[in-house]
Amino acid sequence: MSAVILHEHFSRGTQDLLNALDASKPGALVFVTGVSGSGKSELRYRAMRKVCGKPDSWLRGTLPAVAVRATLTDRNNFNQKDLAERLALSLRQPDIRWALSRDEVLDPDIVHDRTESFVQTPIWQAERRGTTAHQLILEFEKNAIARRVRWLFIEDSACITCMPRGHDIDKYMIGLMQLAEECKLTIILLGTGDSFKLWSGFPDVVRRSLFVWLKRYSERVESDLQGFADLVMAVGRRFPLNEPDVLLNDLDLALANTAGSYGELLQLHVRADLSRRNRSGDTITLRDFEKAALSKENRVTLWAKAAAFDSLLEDVDDPRDLGDLVITWGKGK
Question: CB under 8 Å to 283, separation ≥6 — which residues?
């Protein structure tokens, strides 16, 4: 069984990312944005394997790509030094299990496991106290150049928007662009819709960036109805349903509790299966899906985030509108 369902929007997003990576030049940024559960980690895993090829094809001592995760570690704020640490560690002890076939690993986030474990050790905590963020970045730059790293993937990039007081997002993004230039690599930032704060209002960032969207199945797009129905059936085949089309016959329930997100749909099935187990049932019924539904508060929050993401894709602006600024060619004649 394939580890991920290659549904319509995921396949489209995969190809769009590969196209963007092919078009990007060293020093560029690529933003991959999607709602929670859209498959960004799965997409990153597939993209890394595709652009890097098999390890036996790499030149000795080189490492084409690394992946790290941005986190909120400083009183629910983004800590620049924490990401610098993860960058340095990614090349100190490279974990290339992402090169394995996806069917051989349980979770695409396996690439982060070693780092997550190491940053908690007393040895690293002691070293951290005596090292600055600048020193860690310089270490990464030196090793990235030596190992000819071409692709740097940063997951959960929306965390970067949670800068502590006194720190500017635009200055940090310019620093990332300088890092990409210095190392002659492309940085791929994967995140939710909140990631728009990393480029919105920053023309210098936009000028150096390409954008990939992992779309949800939208109730406002007529062609998405069939795609969502197909996805409901595909996910259902992985669970013991009492009828193959039990959820297909109540798409309103499926949509209301998933907002058209693959990951949310999968979790709805997982919760329904737990309901089945708890009552010692053999198959999942519609009642199990109803019990697995989100609370109204969580549904409202889910849909608010979906609407915010959709707004990023809306083409409502006049591309020639400059607000109060008026421009003319020559003398305006």
Answer: 240, 241, 242, 276
- CATH number, domain 224-313: 1.10.8
Ranges of each domain in the chain: 8-214, 224-313
CATH 1.10.3210.10 fits 8-214, yes or no: no
Q: How far is CA 112 from CA 38, 50, 97, 265, in A?
A: 19, 19, 10, 25
At 8, list the tokens. Answer: 């319509």
What does 216-271 look like in DSSP terms, one character per residue? ---TT-TTHHHHHHHHHHHHHTTS-BSSTTTTGGGHHHHHHTTTT-HHHHHHHHHH
Q: Which pLDDT tens digit goes with each residue over 154-209? A: 999 999 999 999 899 999 999 999 999 999 999 999 999 999 999 999 999 999 99
Supply the pTM of this predicted model: 0.92
Longest dimension (CA), the chain: 81
- Listed residue (158, 215, 140, 154) closest to 188, CA to CA: 154
Specify the 3-state DSSP secondary structure of 210. strand
